[in-house]
């Protein structure tokens, strides 16, 4: 038996001792080639002292003796790896373990010569990869920051390119500027190096390569870029007979003073070295470092394998709402934490053999195998989208309404190639992102047609301002007690050449997305002020309420523009009321507050529109310089019959009055609604019951008749 | 002669081993070789009337592959938290490590801002924030150029040996 034990210890390259107390040990097994070097002061016989051989071991023995005295639950204390330099300069690597086994206290020292080299090699590669990655990201970010700051300071693209190229020249980062139709305008010399091109012969070729790679490797790219957002990802470029190259690519939209897209800037950095280091460690190649989930490359391969098997499955494209705000407002560390928690949530919601991968910055891909019906899939989607960690996370982040939006496609009915399936999930994800109440959606052909229609509409919308296709409508708002007109709300309509009069609900979200809202918003303000000036001229003294989108408030030129416009049309600032939605209150409160305070200082009134549908925070309301609340029409609709709506509306009116705020009820369409509001002392009413929105000339007639 | 255990902790690749090599052997290598586990080196420092032997524990960098083992700080006369001024994130790692170390060790902590031969990417706000922590000293070093390395260990040796001097007559 003892012989067998010795054989085992020898085969695993260990020596073992039994602790006898007071620093003394009995040798169990000490027959290795290396132990005389490690324990060079060990005397013959039993018991022996192990102290005085190794500084590290002495330290561990003190801890081990304390450990053996304890009645702790753990049976083993490990020293961790240590390196010992022998007299001949050779290094040895060891790990000691203090073990409690029945009545015995054992010390086992293991020689790690072989494992150490393996571990060293793996960690060397992993850490070099992290360093290389940090370095690349730092210079890529630097180029991006420089571009962003120069773009905001200068309209001269050539000077931007020269300046940034000079700054990043030494680090070989390619920068390319294209117009809004992706035609190359200029590129720096590093671009030619990256793509093995010749400066004098291959102008514009790099962009063609990049666009082809994007089309093939990121089928969702078109959808992302259509919303004029910046994008970052990795591209794999192969050019026979050259070897494969990996590029990190950032694409940044540049907007002109009208906030319309004018150019795209491409920044490309060679990350082949990082990829090469990753490939030395198979695990790192296909794993996302942050979440430790499979990465996009793995996901792509997995999808190909699933398609090759021919069995039905579902693919999910999971997007996080408001994630950019988290990163911008709370920093990347919190952002990373949120990503990690979400990845855990998704993993927990699916079976072990399903695939969950991080396929973009804030996007996850999931392959559900063995799921063959939509109803089976829905059960899993309910689990994924129910973010259980959120209420326990960061308070401010909870207020952001983080949610998961999932686009779903089914194989084989929706597509039988990787590109097609990803495109379908991306279309469904895009659809669900715009539908506030939906957490997920299954791809349909109608969705794709709708997506194409929206794309067309977006392009047409871009020109609508130029072609003078917008028109203002005005809806009177009445004092409740005497039904006299107090003010009018300005509403914008789009006279589309084919579709006729398009309502704001159909195009304002698109204008928000494309940034057209900034020039359109200014156009509305200017024409509303002009109309108010005209009404004053006709002797009609009323106020005018103008809607302001959250994005407009981020425009620093808004305040001066309004001030200047008011002066231009010689109108009293007190007659202008700006309606903001609760949506803009959910983040960057201090910035919003200072913008609103500046507008108030000019004399303009402010009201919160659609109150009750969004954030509805009383503490924020108290701090905002507002004059009035507009109760959302959804509460007014059933006010005559629904006891809950009655309670909410009367409570909002009472609360607003306590806060010295006036209350407007919108969407009043029936006499009994009007009666309830009057009984509850609502200050103003607006709705079809009293007057529909009308063009300016008709408004003048209405007001003059009154 | 007094022997003092001094531990070096910090994120990976901040230059802990390079500081030890510079101090113990007076050499520097550009090649990065990651440390696994712990390696202890000895060096004697002579003062006018006494000498101190430093047992310098070079501990594997803390990162996603290797966590912090507080047990290594047992019996340390002082510990050094190292960061790399060219990688601003390592400051956050250093502070986090210091906070963990403080829970288990009452010994003086020295913050070393290493790689002073490279351009610093630490912001003034980050540097100012260091005042919120109770480091015995904050020293900027370069293992490559040798700047302040000797001075760092001498300072630690002097202060730690004073702490170790017997009280009484």
UniProtKB/TrEMBL annotation, chain A:
<feature type="domain" description="EAL">
    <location>
        <begin position="454"/>
        <end position="706"/>
    </location>
</feature>
<dbReference type="InterPro" id="IPR035919">
    <property type="entry name" value="EAL_sf"/>
</dbReference>
<dbReference type="InterPro" id="IPR043128">
    <property type="entry name" value="Rev_trsase/Diguanyl_cyclase"/>
</dbReference>
<feature type="domain" description="PAC">
    <location>
        <begin position="231"/>
        <end position="283"/>
    </location>
</feature>
<dbReference type="GO" id="GO:0071111">
    <property type="term" value="F:cyclic-guanylate-specific phosphodiesterase activity"/>
</dbReference>
<dbReference type="InterPro" id="IPR050706">
    <property type="entry name" value="Cyclic-di-GMP_PDE-like"/>
</dbReference>
<dbReference type="InterPro" id="IPR000700">
    <property type="entry name" value="PAS-assoc_C"/>
</dbReference>
<protein>
    <recommendedName>
        <fullName>cyclic-guanylate-specific phosphodiesterase</fullName>
        <ecNumber>3.1.4.52</ecNumber>
    </recommendedName>
</protein>
<dbReference type="Pfam" id="PF00563">
    <property type="entry name" value="EAL"/>
</dbReference>
<keyword id="KW-0973">c-di-GMP</keyword>
<dbReference type="Pfam" id="PF00990">
    <property type="entry name" value="GGDEF"/>
</dbReference>
<feature type="domain" description="GGDEF">
    <location>
        <begin position="311"/>
        <end position="445"/>
    </location>
</feature>
<dbReference type="InterPro" id="IPR029787">
    <property type="entry name" value="Nucleotide_cyclase"/>
</dbReference>
<dbReference type="InterPro" id="IPR001633">
    <property type="entry name" value="EAL_dom"/>
</dbReference>
<dbReference type="InterPro" id="IPR000160">
    <property type="entry name" value="GGDEF_dom"/>
</dbReference>
<dbReference type="InterPro" id="IPR035965">
    <property type="entry name" value="PAS-like_dom_sf"/>
</dbReference>
Automatic annotation (TrEMBL), chain B:
<protein>
    <submittedName>
        <fullName>GTP-binding protein</fullName>
    </submittedName>
</protein>
<dbReference type="InterPro" id="IPR001806">
    <property type="entry name" value="Small_GTPase"/>
</dbReference>
<dbReference type="Pfam" id="PF00071">
    <property type="entry name" value="Ras"/>
</dbReference>
<dbReference type="GO" id="GO:0003924">
    <property type="term" value="F:GTPase activity"/>
</dbReference>
<dbReference type="GO" id="GO:0005525">
    <property type="term" value="F:GTP binding"/>
</dbReference>
<dbReference type="InterPro" id="IPR027417">
    <property type="entry name" value="P-loop_NTPase"/>
</dbReference>
<keyword id="KW-0547">Nucleotide-binding</keyword>
<dbReference type="InterPro" id="IPR005225">
    <property type="entry name" value="Small_GTP-bd"/>
</dbReference>
């Amino acid at each position: 038996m003892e012989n067998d034990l010795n054989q085992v210890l020898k085969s695993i390259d260990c020596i073992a001792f039994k602790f006898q107390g007071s620093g003394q040990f009995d040798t169990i097994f000490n027959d290795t080639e290396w132990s005389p070097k490690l324990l060079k002061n060990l005397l013959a016989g039993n018991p022996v002292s192990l102290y005085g051989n190794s500084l590290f071991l002495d330290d561990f023995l003190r801890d081990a003796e304390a450990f053996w005295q304890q009645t702790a639950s753990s049976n083993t204390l490990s020293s961790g790896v240590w390196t010992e330099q022998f007299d001949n300069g050779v290094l040895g690597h060891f790990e000691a373990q203090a073990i409690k086994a029945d009545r015995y206290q054992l010390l086992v020292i293991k020689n790690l010569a072989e494992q150490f080299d393996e571990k060293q090699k793996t960690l060397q590669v992993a850490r070099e990869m992290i360093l290389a990655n940090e370095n690349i990201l730092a210079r890529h970010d630097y180029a991006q920051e420089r571009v962003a700051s120069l773009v905001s300071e200068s309209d001269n693209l050539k000077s931007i390119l020269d300046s940034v190229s000079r700054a990043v020249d030494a680090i070989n980062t390619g920068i390319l500027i294209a117009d809004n139709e992706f035609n190359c305008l200029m590129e720096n010399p590093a671009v030619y190096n990256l793509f093995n091109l010749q400066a004098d012969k291959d102008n514009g070729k790099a962009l063609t390569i990049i666009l082809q790679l994007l089309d093939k490797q990121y089928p969702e790219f078109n959808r992302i870029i259509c919303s004029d957002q910046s994008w970052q990802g990795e591209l794999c470029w192969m050019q026979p007979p050259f070897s494969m190259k990996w590029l990190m690519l950032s694409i940044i939209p540049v907007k002109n003073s009208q906030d319309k897209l004018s150019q795209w800037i491409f920044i490309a950095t060679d990350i082949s070295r990082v990829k090469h280091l990753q490939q030395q460690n198979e695990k790192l190649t296909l794993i996302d470092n942050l979440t430790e989930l499979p990465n996009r490359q793995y996901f792509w391969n997995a999808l190909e394998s699933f398609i090759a098997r021919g069995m039905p499955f579902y693919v999910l494209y999971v997007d996080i709402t408001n994630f950019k705000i988290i990163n911008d407002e709370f920093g990347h560390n919190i952002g990373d934490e949120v990503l990690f928690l979400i990845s855990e949530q998704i993993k927990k919601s699916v079976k072990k053999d399903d695939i969950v991968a991080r396929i973009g910055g804030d996007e996850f891909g999931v392959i559900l195998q063995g799921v063959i019906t939509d109803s089976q899939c829905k059960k899993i989607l309910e689990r994924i989208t129910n973010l259980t960690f959120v209420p326990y996370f960061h308070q401010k982040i909870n207020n952001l309404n983080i949610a998961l939006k999932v686009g779903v496609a089914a194989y084989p009915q929706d597509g039988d190639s990787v590109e097609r399936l990803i495109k379908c999930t991306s279309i469904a994800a895009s659809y669900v992102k715009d539908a506030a109440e939906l957490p997920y959606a299954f791809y349909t052909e109608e969705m794709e047609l709708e997506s194409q229609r929206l794309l067309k509409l977006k392009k047409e919308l871009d020109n609508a301002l130029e072609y003078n296709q917008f028109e203002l409508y005005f809806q009177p708002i009445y004092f409740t007690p005497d039904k006299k007109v107090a003010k009018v709300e300005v509403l914008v309509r789009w006279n589309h050449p084919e579709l006729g009069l398009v309502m704001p609900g159909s195009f304002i979200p698109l204008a928000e997305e494309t940034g057209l809202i900034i020039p359109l918003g200014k156009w509305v303000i200017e024409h509303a002020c002009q109309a108010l000036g005209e009404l004053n001229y006709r002797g009609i003294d009323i106020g005018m309420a103008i809607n302001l989108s959250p994005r407009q408030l981020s425009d620093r030129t808004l305040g001066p523009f309004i001030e200047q416009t008011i002066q231009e049309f010689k109108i009293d600032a007190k007659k202008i009321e700006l309606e903001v939605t609760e949506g803009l209150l959910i983040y960057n409160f201090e910035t919003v507050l200072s913008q609103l305070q500046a507008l108030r200082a000019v004399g303009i009134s402010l009201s919160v529109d659609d109150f009750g549908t969004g954030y509805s925070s009383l503490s924020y309301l108290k701090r905002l310089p507002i004059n009035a609340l507009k109760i959302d029409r959804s509460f007014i609709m059933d006010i005559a019959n629904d006891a809950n709506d009655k309670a909410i509306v009367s409570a909002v009116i009472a609360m607003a009055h306590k806060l010295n705020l006036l209350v407007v009820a919108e969407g009043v369409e029936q006499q009994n609604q009007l009666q309830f509001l009057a009984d509850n002392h609502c200050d103003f009413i607006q709705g079809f019951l009293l007057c529909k929105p009308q063009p300016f000339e008709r408004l003048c007639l209405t007001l003059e008749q009154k | 002669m007094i022997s003092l255990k001094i531990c070096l902790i910090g994120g990976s690749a901040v230059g802990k081993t390079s500081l030890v090599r510079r101090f113990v052997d007076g050499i520097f290598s550009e090649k990065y070789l990651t440390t696994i586990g712990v390696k202890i080196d000895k060096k004697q420092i002579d003062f006018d009337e006494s000498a101190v032997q430093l047992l310098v524990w070079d501990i594997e960098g803390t990162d996603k592959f290797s966590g912090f083992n507080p047990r290594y700080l047992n019996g340390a006369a002082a510990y050094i938290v190292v960061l790399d001024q060219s990688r601003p994130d390592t400051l956050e790692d250093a502070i986090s490590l210091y906070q963990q170390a403080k829970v288990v060790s009452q010994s003086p902590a020295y913050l070393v801002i290493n790689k002073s031969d490279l351009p610093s990417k630490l912001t003034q706000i980050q540097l100012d924030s260091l005042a919120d922590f109770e480091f015995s000293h904050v020293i900027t070093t370069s293992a490559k150029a040798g700047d302040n390395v000797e001075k760092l260990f001498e300072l630690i040796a002097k202060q730690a040996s004073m702490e170790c001097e017997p009280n009484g007559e």
